[in-house]
Amino acid sequence: MTDPVQTELDEFELDALTELVNLGVSRAATNLRDMVGQQVLLSVPTVALMSRERAIEVLGEREPKRLIAVHQVFEGDITGRALLIFPEIKSLELVRAVTGSDLPLEDIIELEQEALTETGNVVLNGCLATIANLLHRRLKISLPELLRGEGPEFFNLAPPPERGDVVIFIYINFVVKKHDVSGYIAMLMDMPSLSALKGLLRDFIYRATGDGAPDGDIPA
Amino acid sequence: MAISRPDPLLHGAVFDDLDCGIIVLDARHRIVGWNAWLAIASGLKPADCMGKAVDELFPHLRHGRLASAIREALESGASSVMSHSLHATVFPLRTHTGGQLIHNLSIRPLGDRAAPHALIQITDVTAASHREQILRERQNARYNAVVESAPDAILTLDAEGLIQLANPAAAREFGYEPGELVGRPVSVLFADQPDWEAAWRTIIAGGLLARPIDVMARRKDGSPSYLEVSASRWSSAPQLFVTAILRDVNERRAAEEALRALNQTLEQRVTERTAERDRMWRLSSDVMLVARYDSTIMAVNPAWMTLFGWREADLVGRTLKEFVHPDDIATTVMDEDEGQLRRGPKTLRFENRYRHRDGSYRWLSWTAVPEQGLIHAVGRDVTDEKMQALALARAEDQLRQAQKMEAVGHLTGGVAHDFNNLLQVVVGNLEILQRNLKSQPARLQRAVENAMTGARRAAVLTQRLLAFSRRQPLAPRPLDLNQLVHGMSDLLSRTLGETVRIETVLADDVYRVEVDPNQLENAILNLAVNARDAMLQGGALTIETANARLDDDYVEANAGVTPGQYAVISVTDTGTGMDRETLIRVFEPFFTTKEVGKGTGLGLSMVYGFVKQSGGHVKVYSEIDQGTTVRIYLPRLMGETIEEIVADAPQKPPPGSRSETILVVEDDDDVRMYSVEILRELGYRVLEAHDSASALRLLERQDGRVDLLFSDIVLPGGVNGEQLAERARAIRPELKVLFTTGYARNAIMRDGRLEAGVELITKPFTYAALASRIRAILDQ
Amino acid sequence: MAVMTYRVLVVDDSKLARMAVAKALRTLQPEWTRVEATNADEALALVRDSAVDIALLDFNMPGRDGLDLAADLRKLHPTMPVAVISANTQVEIVNRTREIGASFLPKPLADPALKEFLAAAALHLASVAR
Description:
The complex is a heterotrimer of chains A (220), B (780) and C (130). Chain A has helices at 11-36, 52-62, 91-99, 105-134, 151-154, 191-209; strands at residues 40-42, 46-51, 67-75, 80-87, 140-141, 145-149, 166-176, 179-189. Chain A has 220 residues and is an alpha+beta fold. The N and C termini of chain A lie far apart (44 Å). Chains in contact: A-B, A-C. Chains A and C meet through helix 1 and helix 6 of A and helix 1, strand 2 and helix 4 of C.
C-alpha cells in the first residue's frame, strides 16, 4: 500500500526540497565545525517524505536501541516539530567530539545533557534557518529540549502543536573528530503545512530556475 | 508579535530587576537593550553599550557561535542556546563577590518580520556550577587519590565498550599518550580474548565476576601485556558504565613462562633423546639386545624379526645359548668373561652364528658393553662377508694347489723331455742288441732283456710324468665310454685279482666323449690299481658311467670347471678310504700313502693331468673305512659318429721296400742314427739330414722320389718341423709327413691335441710302433 | 575585439541546482554554451569527449565529491578555470579548493559572485590562448 504522503510532492518539488536540505545540512556542518574546531565531514543526506506511522516503522527498523532527540518547534507559514535523532550510545561520543577528550568522565556525564542539547541546536538551526531563508520565510524556532526514548514517543508528543501526519525524514552522517555520528532529522508537520511548503517550494523553483518548469533543452 | 508598550514601570522594573542579563538587538545587530543585572555583572553601563554591536564591545565574539546565533535569530527566527559546558566564558562577567560569573545563554528571535529583534538572555549558573564543581571536586579528590595515582590500570567503559576514562597508569601500561585511549573501543586492547568477552557479557548483564580473570592485552606497539582484571558495573542514569582494574602480572607471567620454557626444553631434550634412542632401537638393521649376565635375554629390537624371523616373545626370557650355533658357544664370551665385563666398561667384540627361525645360521659380529648390571649388545649380520671370506680362502687354496701342480708339472715336463731323449737312445740300442743277440748265449739275451725292461719302465714313468705335466700329446677320438669299459674287463680282472669283485653300472644313454682312449684306459687302470691296494682283504670295485650336468653352483665350488654337460666314469672301491688330509693332497705328484717301493705316487697325478688336459674334471670322495669314489667328468661330444676302436693286434712289424724313400730329419745324432738304422732294417731307403736347411737341399737335389718326411718337430736353425714340412710339400706336394717329438710345446699342438691330419709318433717309440706307423702312412 | 564563447561544464546531482546555475549563466553570458553532468564520472567522460572551457562543480555529491573532481580536472586541463560551489563553507574546504587552484563560490549561488568568477575565467582563457 503506497504511503499517501509520498505522492504529495512531485519530483521537482522533492528535488528542490532535497537541495534545500543539502544546503541546510551543509550550513549546519559549517556551524558545527566552528564549534568543534576541526573539519566536519558530511555525507550527502537522503530525503524522504513519509507518514508518521511509516517514519516510526523505519526508525524502529534501523535504530532498534534507545534514542536521544533534540527537539525544537517551528512556527510560521509552516508549523511543526523538528527532531534531531540519534542512538543514545553515540551520545557520549558526540559530547566528547564536541567538548574535547580532556574532560574527565564525570564532567562529561554532567555536561552531556547540555552539550548534546546545544549540539543538536546547532544542527537543527543550521538546517531550519537555511531552509526558511531560502523559502523567504521567517519561522519562529523554539529553544531546544533533550529527549530520551524511542521513536513512537518522539513522534507522539503532546500538543501544541497539533500532532502532524507528515514527516520529512532526513538521514545524515557526520564525522566529527573521527567520531562517526549518523542520525536523522525528522520534520513533523500537518497537511496544511505541507501544502504551504509545497507552494513555497514552487516559488523557490521559480526563483532559482527562472520558470516553473524544468528546462529540457540545453543550448548547444 | 510587536513590542507593545504597557506600563513602563512594570517593564522597567522587571527589565532591570530580573535575576538574569538581557541584551536586545535590532535588525542591524545593534544593542537596543542592556539591563541593570548585566550592567553590574559586566561593569558596562547601558549608556556604554547602546547602539553598538556586540562584537564591538567584545571583539572575541565577532565570529563563532554567538554571532551565528544572533544572525539566525534575526534572519531566520531561530532560537539558540549556549551552554557554559561548551563555552566556558562568553561574556566577561563577575559575581557580586567578584568571582567569575559562569553563565548560560539563550538567543531568541523577538518581534516580527517587519522589525526583527534578537533577545539574548544570560543566566547565572555560578552557584549551581560551583556546587556541582565542589561536589565534583570532592568526588574527584577522592577519586583522583585512588584513580590517578593507582599503580594499576583503571579503565571506565560505557555500555558499548568505548573507553571513557583511562588513568595515567593505564596510559603507561599500554603505551598511549594520556587521553589517547579515551573514546576508543576497548577492543584495541583486548582483541580475540574469549575470557574478556565472557566477563564483559556477565558484567553488563548485571552479574559479578567471582574472581579476577587473566587476559592478554595488546599495547600500542603491539606487544602483549598480561593482566589480571577485576571489573564491576555502575550507572549514572541513564548511562551504564563498567570500571575495570587491570593488574600487571607480566612479571609473574614472565617467570612462569621462563619456568615453562625451561621445563619444556628439558622435557623436550629428554623426549628427543628418548625418541632418538627409540628410533635407533626400532629402525636399526643391526640386532640389538639387552641381556643379563647369565645370558637371559631381557629385550630385543625389531631387527631380530627381520634378520632371524624371531618375534620378541620368542626371544625374551630365553637364554642366548639356545640360539647360538653349537660350535660357537665356546667362543661366546657372555659368561666366560662375566668377570671381565663387570670389572670395567670394556667393550667386547666377537663373532658367532645365530640360528634363524628356519634352522639356518647367520654370522653376527657383536659389540657388547656392560651397563648398569646388564649387557647391551649390537650385532651386525656378517654372514655374507663370512661366506665370501670362506669362499675366498677356498679359492686361494685351490689356486695354490693348482699353482703347485703347475710348478711341479713344469719341472717334471722339462726333466721328462730330456729323459725321454735319453731313453730313446737306450731303448733303441737295446733293441738292436736284442735282435742281433739271437744267436748268442741266453745269459747275454737275458741281460739285454732286463735292460730293456728297465728302460721300458723308465719310459712309462716319463710318460706319466709328461701326462701329469699335461704336456703329453693326446690323440683324442670320439668314444663310447661303455665300449671302452667293456674292452678293459679282462685287463681289470687281471689287475685286481680274485679277491675283488668287479661290477659295472653303465648308463645306456651315456654321452659320447672325445678323448685319447689309451690315456683313458691308463687312467682307469691307475684307479683300479689304487683301489686294489686299498682293498687288500678283498672287496668290490664298481665302475659306473652316467651323464651329469655341472651347473654354475658346482663350478663356483670347484675352481677350474666349465659348466655344461659331462659324461662321468666313476670308480668306487670298498677299501680303507682316505682321511681329509690325504684327500686334499691326493693328486699331488709323488704323494703316496703307500709304502716305499709300492707305488710311485704318480698314478693319480697322471689321471688328474690327463683329465684336465682333456677338458674334464676329476673329483675324489672318500671316508675312512667307507671306501673311495673317483669320478672322472669328461665333456660331452656333440654330433659325430663313433669310430670303432680297433685294437691293434700285435703284428710282425710290416716291412718297407727299397722303392720307398724316407727322409729322416733329427738334430740329435744318436737318435737320428737309431731311427735311420731301424728304417733301413725294415727295408726302406733312408736319407738323413740334421736340420731343415740340409733337409730341403736334399729334397731339391734328390732325383728320385721321396715318399715320407720323418722329422722331429723341434729342430734347430729357426725352422721347425712344421715349417719344414710346409716347405717340403711345396717342393714335393705328394710328400707324406710323420712327426716325432718327446716334448711337444709348439704351434702344432693345440690344447694338447694334434691338428687333424697331422701324424705324430711320440718318443720313445718302439721299433714295432714306428714300423707299423710308417707303413700305415705310406699305405694311405 | 572578438567575443569569445566558451563552453561551461555544470556538475550537480540536483537538477534544481543545475537549473539555477543555468539560469545564472544565461543571464550573465547568454552566448556561451553549457553541458551538464550529475556526478564526477559523467563529468570526466564529458570532458574527455568534448571540449570544455570552464567547470562549475557542486561540492556535496554522492560518490566522489566536487573537490576531488576539481583536482582531477586541474590535472587534466591545467588551464581550465574551475569553481567549486557549496553551502558547506567550512574553512578547510575553502582552503583546499584554493590549494588546488580552483575558486570557491558559496551556495546559494549569488549572481555577483558567479559573474566575478566568469569574468576572471574568460580573461584567463583569453590570455592563455595567445
